[in-house]
Each structure stands twice: as structure tokens, then as C-alpha cells.
Amino acid sequence: MATTFDETTIDNALADLAAGEKAWAQTPLRKRRELLDVIHLRTGRYAEDWVRAARTIKQLDAGSPLVGEEWMSGPLAMLQATAALSATLSALEQGRSPLDGVTLTQAPGDRVAVPILPLDIYDRLLLSGFRGEVWLRQGVDAETARRRAGLAQLDPTATGGIGAVLGAGNITSIPPLDALYELFAHNRVVALKLNPITDPLFTVFEMIFAPLLELGVLRILAGGAEAGGYLVRHPEVAHVHMTGSAHTHDAIVWGSGPEGAQRKQDGKPLLDKPITSELGGVSPTIVVPGDWSDADLRFQAEHVATQRLHNGGYNCVAAQAVVLSEGWRLKDKFLNELRAALELAPQRAAYYPGSDGRVADALAAYPEAERLGSGRVLIDQLPRAETPLLSTEYFSPVLGVVELPYSGGDFLARAVDFANSELTGTLGANVLAAPETIRRLGIAFDRAIERLRYGTVAVNAWTGLAFLAPRASWGAFPGHTLADVQSGIGVVHNAFLLDDVERTVVRGPFRPVPRSLLGGELALSPKPPWFVTNSTAAETGRKLTEFYADANPARLPGLFLSAFRG
Fold it and tell me: With contact defined as beta carbons under 8 Å apart, do 348 and 66 qualify?
């Protein structure tokens, strides 16, 4: 059961971790890998308890297909992460680079690209047609990438003190995944403070992480902002990592109110230790005009609706600005399909605190906005000047549409300029384009993807796929500062433990099977289970979790049947 905040609880937890750091320094790679394997086993064992607690938090009925989101973004993400990290430590344990046997390729701009999807037969079966790679920063060659892969696990005896992790309240795997990254990427023992929204998961996380708790390298804490403030400013804490909003970040770094604003202006942070962060922003979905069929329009409208409505709209990387060509002849048909998709998606409670107020703010700013379904807002023909939707993350089911007066390749180049220069944040950007359009644009399309300054770029996929892919990096585009943090500083996940990460790029099929094959795409994927319109998402999410818990091939026929019924 979660404990309430008191200074003694935090002091004692940090004292335990100070001792635990010594134990962690003496823990060899083999034992660390075995700990990951045990945590993987325990995640599978307590997966149903995890999802039951998540349903309570999200106020979802047991029979809702949206429960699939909780399977996939909860225990499934954790299972994949622990397995991928275990493989990385296994390579290091044998004196090899985690990238041994991985064929590195070249990305645009003379960058090294590290493939992260597909990597094995199960990736090819379960995510047919989906691909992903991590692009490293310019100037890093393949030899350097292989040598540096492993990060702090290259010298496990060199620990980094105590890291405080302030857990997110929206996606339930974020707190445990961030704790694992601190422990393995940075060799820091971890004080994980949960967001009060996720308190129902406190006991589940204690059960899953029991081996790390017993070793003294992890402590799980509860409490609100006061507890978090005490923790991050504690002299025993060497580093802070947080997931949340830029506003919360600035309150931690600079302080709140006029005094905090003055400190920020003077460049004198209140926080006296390093901080990394994964924050939100205004994520774009760029729709490249093309000759789409009615089925294409409907499917991609459901895709965009998913990008906004997944988890009720409470995702840091949720699409908020759809960018269209003003002269696209199918623009109005697409918008009608988008309205229908937003309205017909399953209804759900606005569980995240403040959501109704943020929706009300959007309606006040845009009196002509359309209300679709329960609390969903669509704002068409957004002005580009002094419009809050382009600079304010609403973190609620609010979606805007911007039309640019360009067409063809010129539209795509201008849309990239617009996203880079006029939208707040750099966490993720989506691009939707028919395969024939991508082929026609050729190198201009590749150049557009390169020019998007985002931590994750998704082509005919949703950036959320990169969150679920354990070897993908997850975080803002590099270069932000404490004074202008945008979508944050640093990355997480990254199970290859790569150094010098710039971004992740994921790609998916433009059409589901069988239309994908008819259109020349070698992809056998049906409608993805993360679509909010997928009727069997709960069953498929459960079956995926069960499969990744034990990798039993006998589970695959039932899994495929559920997926194709969706």
C-alpha cells in the first residue's frame, strides 16, 4: 500500500539507497542480467494485476476494447524492455558489443543508422511491414557506435549515486521503464516517486521489482508535489529525471511564481543538480496529398484519430496539429472521415486531472470549434498567427487542423518548415504519405524526414510505436537547454544502450492487409491493435502480453486470429 509523504520516509529510503549503491557496484553483469530475467518473469506473473489497477485508474469497463491500451503500454512494454536489456547485458557479459551481429546502415546526412525493428522472426511476424532505426548524431562512425554501446554497463563498478525519478501519471509503464534506464544506462540506484494518479499500482510495482528492492538499489515512494520537491532537493540525490510538462520542469529547476521567473531570467537555477526530462509539446501529423481511395481516407482518418485519442488524449506525443495542403482535392473528404472517426471512437472518462478545464480553454479560444463525441474538440482552419493551439500542449482530446497553401513536394518542404519553426516541442512528428507519393518524391521525401527536428519521426505509423519498441530511443530532439527545455533533455528506453543518439525513425505500411499487398507493399499487418477503432484490441493486447511473457510459439495462432478479427 502506498505511503503518505513524510520527510523521514524519504530520508530512510535514501539512506537505504546509499548502502544499496555499494551493493550495486559489486553486482557483476551476470547477476544484473539474471535480475532482469527475474523481473521479466514477475512482470508476466503480475500482468493481470497491473492491468486491473490501470483499469481502475483510467475508469475503463472490463469489457472495453480500450483495455488493450493498458496491456500494450503497461506490462507488454515492460516485458519487451526487460528482454531487450537482458540481451544487451548478455553481450557485454561475453565481452561483445550489444551491436555485434547488427548490420549498421547509413541514414541521410551521413549518419549511422542502427536497426531496431525488425530484429527477429517474431518482429517480422507480429509487426509485418513495420521498420525502425535509431539515427546517431552526425560525425559518429560505426566503429564508435559499437564501441560505446553499453553506456554505464561498460564499467558496472562505476556507479553514479542516487537518481530521483518522478514518475508519469498517464502511461503506466513510464515509471518502471524510467527506473530501469537510470539503473542500467546510468548506473544510478533509484528513488522512484510515483505520481499520485498511479498509486493503485504501488503494490504491483513492489511485487514486480521485489529483487531490486531486496538488493537495496530501488525504493518506491508515494506522495504529491511536496514529496517530489523534498526528494529532488535532497542532498543525497545526485540526479533527477522527470516525465511531465515543461511547466512542472521549470517549477523544479527554477522555482515557481515571480521568484522562479526571475531566477530563470537571471540564469540561476534553484535545482543544484543535473536533470533530464521527457516532456510534451504540440505534435504534428503531416498529411502529404495524394490520390487516396475511399478506404485509404477512412483508414488514415482512424489513424489520426488514434494519434489524438489513444489513452484518452493524455499522451505527451499525442497528435495535436494536423497539417494539410489547402489545395488537396480530397481534403474535405478526409476531414469528414476524420470527424466521423473522432466521433465514433469508443467513449471514455476524462480521467486525467484538469482535462475538462483544458478542453474548456480550447473552446474559449476557438468559439467555432466542433464538439465531437464526449469532450472531443476539432478546430478546423486554424490561423497561424497568435493561436494558442500551436504553442500550448492541451493534453486532452483537442485536435487542430492547419492548411498550408502549397502542393506536392513544395507542400512537404513547407510543412516541415512549419513544424520545425512554429510548433512547440520536438518529441514526435508523424508523416502520412501513399507509397506512390513517396516513390515520386524520391530523395525530396528522404530529405524532408531528415529535416524534421524531432526525437521520433513516424512515416505511415504513429510515433507511439517507438515508445513500445524497446530498442528505440525515446525523448526530445537533442539541443534543448534548461532555459528553453521544449520537450526535454536526454533519452530513455534505448535498450541497446547507444551513445550519441539523435532520433528514432519508424515506418509502417500505408494500408492494412490485403490492401497493402494490392498496393505493392510487402506487409501482412491488419489494422494495428493500438488503433482506438480496433474491436479486438483488449483480447489482442492480452495475447501479445502472454506471448512476450514466455515466447511460447503455441500462442501465435490464437494471437493472429484475434489480430485479424480487429
Answer: yes
Per the CB < 8 A criterion, the answer to whether 201 and 49 are in contact is no
566503429: which residue's cell? 143
Phi-psi region of 311 (alpha: psi -120 to 50; beta: other; left: phi over 0): left
Backbone angles phi, psi at 270, to 5 degrees: -75, -35
Residue 48 and residue 189: Cα distance in Å, rounded?
Answer: 28
Long-range contacts made by residues 112-119, C-beta under 8 angstroms, separation at least 24? Answer: 112/136, 112/140, 112/141, 112/142, 112/145, 113/505, 114/145, 114/471, 114/496, 114/498, 116/469, 116/471, 116/472, 116/496, 116/504, 117/469, 117/471, 117/472, 117/506, 119/471
Closest among 64, 234, 564 to 252, alpha carbons compared: 234
Q: Are 108 and 449 in contact (CB under 8 A)?
A: yes
Tens digit of each residue's pLDDT, the chain (566 residues): 444 568 999 999 999 999 999 999 999 999 999 999 999 999 999 999 999 999 999 999 999 999 999 999 999 999 999 999 999 999 999 999 999 999 999 999 999 999 999 999 999 999 999 999 999 999 999 999 999 999 999 999 999 999 999 999 999 999 999 999 999 999 999 999 999 999 999 999 999 999 999 999 999 999 999 999 999 999 999 999 999 999 999 999 999 999 999 999 999 999 999 999 999 999 999 999 999 999 999 999 999 999 999 999 999 999 999 999 999 999 999 999 999 999 999 999 999 999 999 999 999 999 999 999 878 999 999 988 889 999 999 999 999 999 999 998 899 999 999 999 999 999 999 999 999 999 999 999 999 999 999 999 999 999 999 999 999 999 999 999 999 999 999 999 999 999 999 999 999 999 999 999 999 998 999 999 999 999 999 999 999 999 999 999 999 999 999 999 99
* Distance linking the first and last C-alpha atoms of the chain: 37
Q: What share of the chain is helix, strand, coil (3-state, %, to 5)?
A: 45, 15, 35
* Cell numbers given for 400: 487542430
C-alpha cell recorded at residue 430: 508523424
What one-letter code names the amino acid at 443? I
Are 476 and 487 in contact by the 8 Å Cβ rule? The answer is yes
Q: For the packed helices 225-232 and 246-254, what is the interaxial angle rounded to 10 degrees?
A: 50
CB-based contact 83:421 (threshold 8 Å)? no
